[in-house]
Amino acid sequence: MTRKERYQHFVEYFSKNQPDAETELHYGNAFQLLMAVILSAQCTDKRINQVTPALFERFPTPESLAASTADEVFTYIRSVSYPNNKAKHLVGMAKVLVEVFKGEVPSAIDDLQKMPGVGRKTANVISSVVFDAPAIAVDTHVFRVSARIGLTNKARTPLAVEKQLVEFLPRETLAVAHHWLILHGRYICVARTPKCEICPISWFCKYYESAHTETALLKAEALKIKKAKELKKRNVLNKISKELKKRSVDNND
Question: Which of 60, 151, 162, 176 has the fewest CB atoms within 10 Å, counting from its CB?
Answer without folding.
Answer: 60
